[in-house]
Amino acid sequence: MRFLRLLPLLLLLPAGSIPMTPGVVVPEVDNPNIYNPAPAQKLNSYFEALARSGSAEEASRYEGEIYLIMTRNASPTITFLMESASVALNAQDKKAARTALTSITELDPNFAEGLARLATIAYDDGDYVQAEALLKRALRLEPRHFAAWTGLGLVREDLGDLRGAQAAYREALFYHPYLDGAKRGLIRMEARLDGLSL
Predict the structure, then answer these.
(1) Which of 90, 96, 152, 182 has the fewest CB within 10 Å, making it most exposed?
(2) How does pLDDT run across 91-149, given as a tens digit for each residue?
(3) CA dihedral defined by 162, 3, 174, 57, rounded to 10 degrees?
(4) What is the Cα–Cα distance from 155 to 172, expressed in whole angstroms?
């Protein structure tokens, strides 16, 4: 059940607002015009702001904005299925969550967030090969998906690929410098690799 600790990263996170500061992207979670400019442009701005964030609190706010955009989809069906999967995961109904997430990936194979969430189920089932494949697909679609990088680190760690896990955790921290799971994972890998080199 270790990977399910990542679920808060893979679920829609609440986002607040931060004080207006020159040169800083201000979250607009309550703004109905969040998609003006286009989502891709907004997403780029939030990822850039996240990488430059000066505190964990500030980072968490940009993280929330990123998830708001990444979990939205033009299809009402996929939006409904995402919500259903989130409810099922919160209720620890893995079977219902798997069904909803599998349907999402079939309806839209290019929806990175659906792939990343389905990977959590595969990992929890002990299917590391499937989890790794899903995470790699998600990362090809959205290379900045810090939770997917952290998940890939865990998968590689459990498969004994310590250097691969180390690289994945570093990638996660490149995009989200305050991500606790990635920080702890990187510390574990560096300690284990140092021990092997003695």
Answers:
(1) 90
(2) 999 999 999 999 999 999 999 999 999 999 999 999 999 999 999 999 999 999 999 99
(3) -140
(4) 14
CA distance 35 to 30: 12
CA gap 134, 100 in Å, rounded: 15
* Mean pLDDT within 147-171: 97
CB crowding 158-194: b at 16 or more within 10 Å, else e: beebbebbbbbbbbbbebbbbbebbbebbebbeeeee
> What is the three-state SS of the chain?
CHHHHHHHHHCCCCCCCCCCCCCCCCCCCCCCCCCCCCHHHHHHHHHHHHHHCCCHHHHHHHHHHHHHHHCCCCCHHHHHHHHHHHHHHHCCCHHHHHHHHHHHHHHCCCCHHHHHHHHHHHHHCCCHHHHHHHHHHHHHHCCCCHHHHHHHHHHHHHCCCHHHHHHHHHHHHHHCCCCHHHHHHHHHHHHHHHHHHC
Integer Cα distance of 153 and 157 in angstroms? 6
**pTM of the entire predicted model:** 0.81
